[in-house]
Amino acid sequence: MTSTALSPDRPATSRRPVRAGRPLTRASGLGFGVAMMWFSLLVLIPLAAVVVTASAGGWSAFWQAVTNEQTAAAIELTVGTAFAVTLVNIVMGTMIAWVLVRDRFFGKRALEILIDIPFALPTIVAGLVLLSLYGRTSPLGIDIANTRPAVFLAFLFVTLPFVVRTVQPVLAELERDVEEAAMSLGASRFTVFRRIILPSLTPAIAAGAALSFARGVSEYGSLVLLSGNLPMKTEVTSVRILSSIENDNLDSAAAVATILLAISFAVIVLLDVIQRRMVRRG
């Protein structure tokens, strides 16, 4: 008869219990199926159609479409400007959210409403507003129409609320007791922000940054009037895609759209990896 007891020289190994997934009920399965079908119709199938159209002419045609001098300049301007605007929004959006949550001042409710104006305002109207303020007849004496700073300004206007609105509710839910306890133990305000507050805000900041970048690379309406859409100077990819469609060159338009899709996906994945690492270090 064999003994099942562990010898003293043989340490016992602990195993984590394996959680078995719960099977879907009929209602859950039906809901999941409807959700996936709706998501496929709205997102997956259209994206797949764009990629298929882009590859219809083969790799050489795809490469020629995206490396065309005018197209490459539009992609460089769009992605570079969207990236720079995203960095600005990460800093300024977090600061605005902090002021709205932690401070009390006259006009706070009005500022809360004004933050959402880029969400509600049609982009072509936003372009008209920016042109009236920063065009030839600017009451401020600032004329940046038909220049690259105009593209930056238009991106900055339409992407302003994203980081603010993703960070604000998370910041409002943070417990002040932990911060006060850390400060009572001698931690500086910067240390409290870096070790306690920032790790909690990082996922929200990353989400807002991803939305800001995606909105920037796809912006069209606010640029039509302000930037002038000058080839090799202020033309962005959305205008370039529209020009290809108007010239009945769907393959080229789909190729540029596929490049933007790949870049946006890579940025979203990169931001997710960064925020996970910062949370772990925090």
From TrEMBL:
SUPFAM superfamilies: MetI-like (SSF161098)
Any GO MF annotation of the entry: ABC-type sulfate transporter activity
One Pfam entry name: BPD_transp_1
Location within or outside the cell: Membrane
Residues covered by the ABC transmembrane type-1 domain: 75-271
One cellular component (GO) term of this entry: plasma membrane
Protein topology in the membrane: Multi-pass membrane protein
UniProt keyword annotations, A-Z: Membrane, Sulfate transport, Transmembrane, Transmembrane helix, Transport
Gene3D superfamilies: MetI-like (1.10.3720.10)
TM region positions: 29-62, 82-101, 113-135, 150-171, 192-214, 253-274
Keyword Transmembrane belongs to the record: yes
Subunit structure: The complex is composed of two ATP-binding proteins (CysA), two transmembrane proteins (CysT and CysW) and a solute-binding protein (CysP).
Physiological role: Part of the ABC transporter complex CysAWTP (TC 3.A.1.6.1) involved in sulfate/thiosulfate import. Probably responsible for the translocation of the substrate across the membrane. Part of the ABC transporter complex (TC 3.A.1.6.1) involved in sulfate/thiosulfate import.
Family: Belongs to the binding-protein-dependent transport system permease family. CysTW subfamily.
PANTHER family: SULFATE TRANSPORT SYSTEM PERMEASE PROTEIN, SULFATE TRANSPORT SYSTEM PERMEASE PROTEIN CYST
The protein's name in its UniProt record: Sulfate transport system permease protein CysT
Organism of this sequence: Catellatospora coxensis
Originating gene: cysT
